[in-house]
Amino acid sequence: MAGRIDRHPILGKRKAKEEVEIIFNGKKIKAEKGEMIAAALQAKGIRIHRFTIKNKEPRGVFCGIGQCTDCAMEVNGQPNVRTCVTPVEEGMVINTQYGLNRDGDNID
User: Fold this and answer.
1) Dihedrals φ, ψ of 99, to 5°?
2) Among 21, 46, 55, 63, which is most exposed with the fewest C-beta within 10 angstroms?
3) Is residue 29 a contact partner of residue 44, using CB atoms and an 8 Å limit?
4) Is 79 helix (H, G, I), strand (E, B) or coil?
5) What share of the chain is helix, strand, coil (3-state, %, to 5)?
6) CB 44 within 8 A of CB 23
7) What is the pTM (predicted TM-score) of this model?
8) How many Cα atoms sit within 13 Å of 47 on the Cβ side?
């Protein structure tokens, strides 16, 4: 399910926010300034953030508070960025991560 909740029973109507452009796997997409990378991707229907090296299994948001590595992605060339606690910035380049960090260690 992609998109955003426009009206919440407790929080009320969603306020419009400034948009920025980010690049995900080579494709330009819009995100709300200051939202977490994982939230921006989820709003576009993107749920897979990385693949494990051993079994090539997909991973995405699990804890949502930066304690696990399931949402880790390569951001601006830096691997293992926890996208659930990292806000988007204009021009940010985000790529799906395939198992290894920059030191060649497995993060499974």
Assistant:
1) 75, -45
2) 55
3) yes
4) strand
5) 5, 35, 60
6) no
7) 0.85
8) 7
In angstroms, the CA 36 to CA 29 distance is 14
Q: What is the pLDDT of residue 70?
A: 93
Per-residue confidence in pLDDT tens, the chain, 108 aa:
468 888 999 989 988 889 999 999 999 999 999 999 999 999 999 999 999 988 999 999 999 999 998 999 999 999 999 999 999 999 999 999 998 765 555 555
Tell me if 91 sits within 8 A of 44, measured CB to CB. no
Phi-psi region of 32 (alpha: psi -120 to 50; beta: other; left: phi over 0): beta
Q: What is the pLDDT of residue 6?
A: 86
Distance of CA 7 to the CA centre of its chain: 23
How far apart CA 98 and CA 31 sit, in angstroms, is 23
Q: Which amino acid is at 19?
A: E
Distance between CA atoms of residues 81 and 84, nearest Å: 9
Set out the domains of the chain in order of their start, with CATH numbers: 17-98 (3.10.20.440)
Which helix (DSSP H) or strand (DSSP E) does residue 38 occupy? helix 37-43
